[in-house]
Amino acid sequence: MTSTDAGVTRAIGLLGEAHNAVALTGAGMSTESGIPDFRSPGGVWTKYHPDDFSYQKFTTRPDSRARYWRWGLEFFPTVRDAQPHAGYVALATLAKQGRLRCVVTQNVDGLHRKAGTPDVIEIHGTALEVGCLGCGKRWPRVEIHARLEPEQFDPRCACGGILKPCTISFGQAMPKAETTRAYQEARRADVFLALGTSLVVFPAADLVPEAVEHGAKLIVINLEPTPFDGLAQVVIHGKVGEVLPAIVEGLQ
Ligand code: NAD
What we know:
The chain has 252 residues and is α/β, with parallel strands linked by helices. It contains 9 helices and 9 strands.
């Protein structure tokens, strides 16, 4: 681990030379915007079991769909109302300065777009929309929530298809175009930033060795160690909402 000040200085040095940086963000990017991550104390997996949210269960069991929508009623308003913090603004600034090419995010909360980052690749989908598993039609999630009946948590499309939030569930195929592009961008990156992600969710975490093997310098900013810290030039154990603005300030 690098001490925060020394780490920030080294990250400024790497990003000062970058023209093609790529960031991979995870749930830790949004905790300072009030959205809990999954694995920290109090995170989602302390209240629910991942298996409850598998694609297989969602598509085959009405009781599982009902549980999922009920959880959505609890979780979604937080996502809908969340606002990007200073770390998000800092990343958008790096993009506008021409240092950061794009952000690959595991998050489903739309905060990078809200912050004005122009090129965002959402490899785990978005929680802000709902799609029909039959015909593929999509709606803003707020519209579907507004018509959810408490006794009937199994909304359907006019075609009869099951409706599902457009997030990628356990056991569901990753979106092909987004995943392909994320790998391409990782391979082209001169600096790769892993931000607020435990790097234990695959294949997203594979982007890190992919980038490093193709020549990227790696910067990890996370509250706790990750399995890929050993590949990094800079590891900062701190909050993205504090560290990223400090880096951008140092680049001015
Ligand atoms: P994770 O929950 O596994 O890990 C988050 C990491 O971020 C942890 O290691 C934690 O120590 C760190 N962290 C927390 N707050 C931080 C902060 N302020 N600054 C720096 N680091 C911080 O998250 P993951 O690796 O992204 O994987 C979980 C999966 O859950 C992802 O696939 C993601 O799609 C999904 N998810 C998304 C959201 C969201 O969209 N906001 C929220 C929860 C989970």
